[in-house]
Design goal:
Blueprint: H1 2-7, H2 18-29, H3 35-46, H4 50-55, H5 67-77, H6 83-92, H7 95-106, H8 112-123, H9 127-131, H10 133-136, E1 138-142, E2 145-148, E3 155-159, E4 165-170, H11 172-178, H12 185-194, E5 197-199, E6 204-208, H13 217-237
Parallel strand pairs: 1-3
Antiparallel strand pairs: 1-2, 3-4, 4-6, 5-6
Helix pairs in contact: 5-7, 12-13
Length: 241
């Protein structure tokens, strides 16, 4: 973060959301930025190592990227063969290489919001959503690493390889300060309505997709919304928590 701190010396970084830090730093940078620099900035600000995500085969599990990603990569590679052959080749590439190729196709200076959108489309990592988790007091373990975690978080969301499954746990902080050792009944009911079920191996509520593909962003949002409702209820009843 040293370079970013220098670049934002006039701003109070601690008071800013992570997406704001990213926006302001890229505004300060003021020129086209390459993929390697983008991944370094994401690691510095969000603590997410996109290179490691790619190397370990983590990230979005999908049969194909969105059309704009596929078309951009095809053009840069001047691909021949059938569409299915082209798609199979692109999907065999490491995610960082797909990112490099697509940003090469993108060409002009790319805005911070566009960078985040491309990262979500390729890696399945929603930096906008992650930026809001600290205030939501929800920890997230995904892509083989802690994506967001603070000492006073009340719940933990864990996802498996490729984000094809997810399970929810009370945090150590919540257990130690309230005696709650299982998910509150209100949260259990909300999760059941979303399609979660009790998994005895995990000892908590669990959801898995049917086709070994990443859980959709809409479902992730519904899950976080359900947990946030219970966080608000708990903190309203326990103002010192």
């Amino acid at each position: 973060m040293e370079i970013i701190n220098k670049g934002l010396a006039l701003a109070s970084i601690e008071a800013m959301a992570k997406v704001e830090v990213m926006d302001k730093y890229l505004d300060f940078y003021g020129k086209k930025i390459d993929s390697i620099e983008i991944r370094s900035i994401v690691n510095d600000i969000f603590g997410i190592n996109l290179n490691r995500v790619s190397e370990e085969g983590e990230g979005k599990a999908t049969r194909s990227y969105p059309d704009e990603i596929m078309d951009g990569v095809r053009q840069i590679l001047s691909m021949e063969g059938t569409l299915s052959e082209q798609e199979a080749y692109i999907m065999s590439l490491p995610k960082v290489q797909v990112m490099d190729l697509y940003l090469q196709y993108y060409g002009e200076k790319i805005e911070s919001s566009e960078i985040r959108r491309v990262i979500d489309q390729i890696f399945g990592i929603n930096l906008n959503g992650i930026s809001g988790l600290e205030a939501a007091r929800i920890s997230l373990y995904s892509k083989g690493q802690w994506i967001s975690k603070t000492e006073r978080d009340l719940f933990e969301v864990h996802t498996g390889t490729g984000d094809i499954d997810v399970w929810i746990l009370p945090s150590k902080y919540l257990i130690e300060n309230t005696g709650i050792s299982t998910l509150p009944e209100e949260l259990q009911n909300l999760l059941k309505n979303l399609g979660y079920w009790y998994n005895s191996d995990k000892g908590t509520f669990y959801y898995s997709t049917n086709y070994n593909e990443t859980v959709p962003d809409v479902f992730k949002g519904q899950t976080m919304g359900a947990i946030s409702n219970i966080v608000n209820l708990i903190t309203a009843n326990n103002p010192d928590l």
